[in-house]
Amino acid sequence: MSDPVAAIRNPILRGFNPDPSIVRAGDDYYIATSTFEWFPGVQIHHSRDLVHWRLLTRPLSRPSQLNMIGDPDSCGVWAPCLTYDGELFYLIYTDVKRYGRTSQPGSVGAGLRDMHNYLVTSRTIDGEWSDPVYLNSSGFDPSLFHDTDGRKYLVNLLWDHRPGKNRFGGIVLQEYSTAERRLIAERHIIFTGTAIGFTEAPHLYKRKGYYYLITAEGGTGWGHAVTMARSRELLGPYEPHPDTYILTARNRPDAELQRAGHADLVETQRGDTYMVYLCGRPLRNRGRCVLGRETAIQRMVWGVDDWLYTEARDAFPRRETAAPELPPHPFAPAPTREDFNDATLPIEFQWLRSPWPDELFSLTERPGYLRLFGRETTGSLFRQSLVARRQQAHCYSAATVVEFEPRHYQQQAGLICYYNGSKFHYLYVSTDEVLGKHLRVMTCHPELPDMFTAPIQIAAGVPAHLRVEVDYERLRFAFRVGGGEWQWLPEQFDASILSDEAGPPTAPNFTGAFVGVCCQDLAGTSHPADFDYFEYREREFAAALLP
Q1: What is the CATH topology of the domain spanning 7-322?
Q2: Taking CA atoms, which of 87, 99, 409, 529 is between 20 and 30 Å from 249?
Q3: Which member of 71, 95, 141, 200 is catalytic?
């Protein structure tokens, strides 16, 4: 047996992986995270030592489980909860259909929201998951608690849309009947939060005769925090933790892991307690988290007072934490290059909203190529032909080659760095009646008019190689045609706009930066583009690439 690893380096799930929910089944650990408008829904990572993790599956893959066509940016699948009762895995999730118009600064002013909570089950974590059971639409962040007597309860945030009210109306609890497959009895408000406010993300646990309730408070930005309360009775009253919050960076600008909150607990085989939580790593000279909200983990300890604390009792999110005494179980690294030789899309890639991917792309129409069918505009809430993977490091290189012969200016395809419909940099190939086939960059900035570089004429009938280099907030594009040399576009673009923090603070911004390929045909003829490969390599800062 190999010696255990001494420390875990955070974040454990890099890039856009927020709202973690963790569960242990025997010797296996699983974390479910939010995917918002990206399909398939919910990412589940797997580990056997809490140190090494691999992306295992995305369970919401059928139209009967999830259809997000029309869902706004940063809506869709919020905050899954993954639990296990010894026989079945239970996955609860919210599908947000409307975020709400904001009439006051911050989410407190977003009154009208549509959010529907569902439950799916499976006997195996990576098997077929059931069709969903509808639960309620009273709020978001639903979580299932399995009590020791076999009864099950749903807790979720109660959303109060009324004017002048606290939108975060408290944590409600209602019993779930497995026999009837529905919520039964009355709902009860069990906790209204602390003075921090924005009380959400509830999870219930039972230990030594207490019911413990963990919530997130302070909003999912710089004031985020993990709070805890407990009660001898399931319905309360719940007494807040003596330190109010048990983990936060809200008053610590020196913390490398900012925005810490939205947590869940797991106990190891040896009885140690670990807490997973979301965090952000802002660019030092921009204060923006282009990697989105990531997942970190920290060892916790129970005090003699039966309250939970960080090991140093300072509630500080740490870049390193002690690893459990478990045999190391590393996984093979994900490939840096995909040649699209299989009939299924590599697991690192996702697309937007639609449960009908055959309308958007094919890996079989031209074997060895990813064929994208030209669809709606970049940023459409309906049918975008865009396939991308997460940016998971501050410095990376990505490249592809596209075979695409546009017939008119309404057809375009290329390489895109994408956050949402109002934040992207897009190096694309198109044509017009003056230059013929050409390429240029479109930048969609959340606070400025759309910007375009001057078109560059390229040869028809020849594949176009496209490349992007990202170093923190600096982004540059290059291209070559056929076997020619790489040619750099002279412009340097701002990669930091691909973040939650860029743009108006009242808009929903909860995802992270992606890099990938896309194709548009605004004439509606589905003119295709073929991509031979996609390469993504993380690296150190490359000063030589600067202009």
Answers
A1: Tachylectin-2; Chain A (2.115.10)
A2: 99
A3: 200
